[in-house]
Structures
1.
Amino acid sequence: MVEVIVEKTRTCPLCEAGCGLTVGFKTEPDAPIAVDTPVLRVRGDADDVLSKGFLCPKGASLGHLHHDPDWLRTPMIKRGDSFESATWDEAFAAIADGLLPIIAEHGAQSVGVYLGNPNAHNLGGLLYNRVLLGALGTRNRFSASTVDQRPKEVSAGTMFGSVTVPVPDLDRTDFLVIMGANPLASNGSLCMAPDFGGRIAAIQARGGKVVVIDPRRTETAEKADEHLAIRPGGDAALLAAIAHHLFATDQVDLGHLGDHVAGLDELRAAVADSTPDRVAPMVGLDAAVITGLADDLAAAPTAAVYGRMGTCTQEFGSLASWLVDVVNALTGNLDSVGGAMFAKGATGQPSSKGAPGSGRGFRLGRGHSRVSSTPEALGEYPVTVLLEEIETPGEGQIRAMVTVGGNPVSSNPNSARVDAAMAAVDFMVSVDPYINETTRHADVILPPPTPLQKSHYDLALLNFAVHNVANYSPALVPLADTQLAEHEIILRFAALVGGVPVDGLAEAAATIDDQTAEGMARSMVRDEHGPLAGRDVAEVLADCGDRRGPERLLDLMLRGGPYGAGTAADLSMDVLEANPHGVDLGALEAGRIPDLLRTESGKVELMPEPIVADLPRLAEAVDAAAAQRADDEALLLIGRRHVRSNNSWMHNLRTLTKGRNRCTLQVHPDDADRIGLVDGKLAHITSRVGALTVACEVTDAVRAGVVSLPHGFGQGLDGVQLEIAAAYDGVNTNVLTDEYLRDEPTGNIALNGVPVTVTAG
Ligand SMILES: Nc1nc2c(c(=O)[nH]1)N[C@H]1C(S)=C(S)[C@@H](COP(=O)(O)OP(=O)(O)OC[C@H]3O[C@@H](n4cnc5c(=O)[nH]c(N)nc54)[C@H](O)[C@@H]3O)O[C@H]1N2
Ligand SMILES: Nc1nc2c(c(=O)[nH]1)N[C@H]1C(S)=C(S)[C@@H](COP(=O)(O)OP(=O)(O)OC[C@H]3O[C@@H](n4cnc5c(=O)[nH]c(N)nc54)[C@H](O)[C@@H]3O)O[C@H]1N2
Ligand code: SF4
Ligand SMILES: [Mo]
């Protein structure tokens, strides 16, 4: 038998970089790719319009993920203590028996839904999860967003009127300040920039400068021109002092934003007390360093401050996220070339739809949770609320859970409490490929196909790209008879919740899909500013031809988007299919403000009320830090990512887990000496909520007073069926993180800066 390598192109769905890959299958000449055709290798696609050949070890492992024997290929039903594989009809019948009576008796609010991170990389989920949420009708919605980026979404929403987050113009900036991000490990977040490291090197090669502000000397900090080891949680105070200094030294220059901002005088007053001297103890940097950074930002021809995880998942996440964009605005770098700019995603965003220049604005707290009266943001409650709602009896108590692509037992704070809550519900359904820390509690697991069996378009993340592109990949491998496409799973589940009997689910799913497409087409022809304005709905739908499911919706969004019908690019599915390496839509455009604003005032709100309301709490923390003696400070726990990890779910691939153990507690030598910790020996860590024992790594990479432990490990729990991951010598850091240590305006969890006590174990 002659075997050849057939190369297929597709986008990597594993992280926010969106790299183009070339997947090599070992097969016979002219044979179609079959479900069991082996993947021989994965390489970077040199012709990809954005990634130009870059890939990381995770992308290179996509074949191993595709062939992972623990990836479920059939639905699973819990019988007694163990799971048995089942048909889809049996699985949906089990859900009908277990879930529907709970809803019938206790109402829609009795179901809690948790959506996890992979949904952000998943076309089917992004397009159809809302259909399932609509069918369930519960307000008890939760997601990984409140352990991640909610503060940035809310700061962008309140400043610009919709969640349109600026990204650093990496390829043209002269001065990049990275706060609380480690793109050399994470490959970038809320910033699609494959080969982030190469882009940093290019800034330096063209004479620019890169500063990293991070309590840890990260891989990214190692590459930077300067590393400022900030105290965890010090970012808002630092940025307020930078703003203060810019005002005090008359260096504020709004550039073209001048006529388009509201609240400049109020802002000046709000940072009047944030002198560099006063905030220095909280920031952990000398006042001269703070003013020097401010002067450099003002003097640079172009500059961009970029803040991510470390600036969001901390106690002052909203203030820090807001102030990042305030400093970009005050230095004339917001919405200008080389500064912080807005990507224009081809499928449209609220900021590229409807009338330009103003809108209904952004609202928080349209509802409040039952138990603690916590306000919603973006239709969700913070993950803390999930626990209270499960544990507290009464009308509206959560009695059943649905998780879609989420592992809250691993990823959410106070894991022991999350674990107990998941065990406590009466019924649980998980749309998930693995039996892991969370899904072991499920009664029914509905597994999606592997990434290579899915089509892909980065519907969410392309709105954060450093260069405007559009990239579509068809599924490369067909489904096995026992598998369903993820959107099909979601639609059938929604139909079931809507009362359709099991034998009618396939047909009902198709009907719901038709209705979804029709609804989308209808809203597009109604947008008088869009390219499909005034068109006939039936005709617009007919233009999609035979496409159904995600491809039809995507086609509609492309044709009705900012590069759609009648524009120069004239984007549609046909165009994307004809361009497997992606379509280049040009560099980011400056001067999108005021048109992209959707605030009521039609201005950039420099003083967004829900966020600035938190300033007094910051002032208290600044004073408390100044009053504190250096030696009575608790150690502060922060996280750490590694390029071979992906949150909690990629430790089951030997290609990624091999090598030295990465789940170590990093401790500064001074702290190690004081406590009596020895490199390679065990340390015992205690927080308000839990305790762990783990090997320590003594290194001056972490700031004194700070310890660092990665997340996503600790699969070795009873019932987890991940052979390789469960054998890894790791612990779950979220046993220590505190569900009540939060950013006040959004309820986002402060996963960083958690006070802990460490002793020799
Ligand atoms: N390899 C890999 N890539 C990933 C992931 C992964 O798990 N592994 N996860 C993906 C996901 S879901 C996301 S959201 C992104 C995240 O991508 P990034 O935002 O780059 O996240 P991290 O790499 O965790 O970097 C956060 C940094 O913040 C620092 N930090 C902690 N506290 C503070 C603080 O108070 N102030 C400042 N200034 N810094 C602080 C930490 O030391 C850390 O270096 O990565 C994505 N990519
Ligand atoms: N201490 C600490 N905790 C953290 C972080 C940190 O830095 N430190 N980071 C936080 C961040 S940024 C995030 S985003 C969260 C992530 O939090 P979660 O989203 O809750 O957790 P993940 O580990 O990403 O788990 C993803 C789940 O999706 C499943 N999955 C994988 N692929 C697919 C798919 O194609 N379809 C479906 N339906 N399921 C799939 C996996 O099996 C797994 O169960 O963790 C947060 N937790
Ligand atoms: S950086 Fe790695 S994981 Fe992220 S998209 Fe590229 S290849 Fe995939
Ligand atoms: Mo994340």
Note: The two ends are 59 Å apart (CA to CA).
2.
Amino acid sequence: MRALDRDDALSPLRDLLALPPELIYLDGNSLGPMPRQAAAAVEQALRHEWAQGLIRSWNDSGWISRARAVGDDLAPLIGASPGEVLVADSTSINLHKVLGAAMSLSRRRDPTRAVLLTQEDNFPTDRYIAQGLCQQWGWTLREAPAGTKDWAAELDRPDVGILMLTHVNYRSGEMHDMARVNRHAQARGVLTVWDLAHSAGAVELALKAPGAAADFAVGCGYKYLNGGPGAPAFVWVHPEHVNRTEQPLRGWLGHEAPFAFEPDYRPAPGIDRYTCGTPPILSLTALQAGVRALRQADALGGMAALRRKSLSLTSAFIECSSAAAQAHGLTLLTPLEPQRRGSQVSWACAAGGPDGFSVMQGLIRRGVIGDFRSGPRAGEPDILRFGFAPLYNTHEEAWRAAQALAEELARASTGPLGAVRRPLVT
Ligand SMILES: *Cc1c(COP(=O)(O)O)cnc(C)c1O
């Protein structure tokens, strides 16, 4: 593992993050660590731009264009071009905007298509937003089974107007083949909406791949982009559609001429029409530091190099943790095939095996921070999630975390009162 870390050209980038020493942080897929530069940048925004500049800073410090500037910094990370990405609001709100826009575009193209297709194990907020919009629009929300890989058959049904998927599943870490899905959807006239919450900053993305382009995408600022708690999210619309789309949250700053204060709405050209209200400048400033930290990888191979390292880290962790995990009845939810794996490893707990919650609490007490997710439905197992961020995690951390997991599993298979719970050994 040390040799892998020695050969890792990306390893100096870890210093861009303010990680507490001795902590093994494997939860950057939930909240990324603070980029060192974020503290200085936010302090500058507070003490200079706000305190001294006051209202003048909207122009003098570029506050008014900061949301687009951060979008431009972010664009190459997701395979988009400058001018196409807006940073604003939360992922949930951006999902509402793009789904509303996609529904109206789809209805104009073909009013007989009124099914929004998704997957039953999609993240709750995606399902809730879709449920609300379907109810409002009189559409049907159709949920393909968890683990669906062959979307061609689902997309063949002539009533499907939109396919909304999360690229990397938040529980299993399984990744969809975006290009393939987009090709199938495009051939059948179905619009695609992608949630990149667990992809942006962790895996390579090509939203405009020729013949396999996505139509709409949203993603999260506080996970692998290290934008800070509650960081604004991002939204992208294919440039060929964007001026034909109308999003439902018409706010004054998405107007073509916001400072004309006209009585009626006219959408701004391009992605700016996805703006609703005033952007959170302090949060944007922190997110900019996070995105710029990732862009430091450009000179070292960029997202392709980060993706290679991510796979190397998750492979190492799977290899080092498998024997102990399987001895305690855990099963690997994350696909072994690299092209189907995002940047996390999820072990599913077995009924009657060690208690996952207490295993994760034990890991956190000893400085290995992953997270625990309980099974949302009957029959779905609790999981232990370990997120690996290629910007700062190391192979040695993967190895040490696997050792700690083995020890905690052994401890947790002995009940709290000393009663030995029998591990499920197969
Ligand atoms: C984290 C996450 C979100 C977050 O939504 P917020 O609006 O920022 O709370 C949305 N979708 C997915 C798939 C996520 O993993």
Note: Residues 417-426 have pLDDT under 50 and may be disordered.
